Amino acid sequence: MLRHRHDRRTPRGKSRPHLWGTVAGGADRADPCRARRSLFHELPAEFDAFVGHKEAISAVPDTITVLAGSASCPVQAFRVGSNVYATQFHPELDTAAFTDRVRTYANHGYFDPIEVDAIIEGVEHVDVRASHMVLGRFIEEYLSSTLR
Q1: What is the CA radius of gyration of the chain?
Q2: 3-state helix, strand, coil in the chain (%, to 5)
Q3: Angle CA(102)–CA(54)–CA(108) in degrees, nearest 5?
Q4: Are 23 and 46 in contact (CB under 8 A)?
Q5: Strand order in the sheet with 77-80
Q6: Per-residue pLDDT tens for 6-39?
Q7: Non-local CB neighbours of 136 within 8 Å, separated by 6+ positions
Q8: Please, which of 68, 83, 86, 89 could form a disulfide with 49 given CB 3.0 to 4.6 Å?
Q9: Are the C-beta atoms of 42 and 25 separated by less than 8 Å?
Q10: CB–CB of 61/24 below 8 Å?
Q11: How far apart (Å, rounded) are the C-alpha atoms in residues 87 and 79?
């Protein structure tokens, strides 16, 4: 479930994009989905991640396996076939990189530019270390699949 920490209505009535939240994606050894086990094992059932998007996938065809999701973005991570993975959240971004991204996109309609400092202050308190583990696990999964 994604509990958004920065999601309000803008003065124009548009929904503000999600900037960080909690992704539900933890898996244990009993999970029948091998990809979910390999990418999300030993992670908490819910973990914080930077998301920063206006769009979200809400439904997928049968050929796509959903690996993680949330209430407002049901498809936060997925697999197509055996070797194509995608995330809607950003496992590659740390606080410094996300702060740079906030500054870069300040005038691109994601949020009111006057709120940049407040957003950055909030971002500095988000612990996204578990989301970084997903990227490392993807690399491990990819390397082990190429050696099979």
Answers
A1: 16
A2: 30, 20, 45
A3: 45
A4: yes
A5: 64-68, 77-80, 84-87
A6: 333 333 333 344 566 777 765 555 556 666 667 8
A7: none
A8: 89
A9: no
A10: no
A11: 9
